[in-house]
Amino acid sequence: MHALQLLFKTSPAALLLGLCLTLWTVPTQGQIQNVISANLTTSQIDNSTGYVITLAVSNLISQCIVVKNTLEVSDTVIFSYGNFRFTSCLCGVSTRRFFWEIEAPENGIITGKAQVVSEENICPPGVNISTPVYEIVITRDVIITL
Description:
The relative contact order is 0.22. By secondary structure, the protein is α+β, with helices and mostly antiparallel strands. The protein has a 4-stranded antiparallel β-sheet, with no helix packed on it. The protein has 2 helices and 8 strands; from the N terminus they run ααββββββββ. Monomer. Interacts with AZGP1.
């Protein structure tokens, strides 16, 4: 009760100053460094229902990272050669492209994901790998229309 009486006697300016100092000194949570970026594109093969899907993943930091790349599609999309999951080592500020070939006789949605993971034996021996304590998933949706 005594604490509440002191609180009501304190000026509003002092309370506001205390609140600001508390918020300013608390470590911020949820700040994520941009480690990778991704771009998902489609290009039609001639005038057919076939498409080449390209997922370009860029490393935005100077350290090596391991990136797992996947493609998720709606039921109307068929993979011509299989839905491969690519895991690769990206060192330095660089970009790597991953390709899938699909058949889409009807409209469909494609989601490409690039995810920083901690996996062994992907980068060459002796390369230091940056293993972030967080995971970044970048998703792009592309609607295929005929």
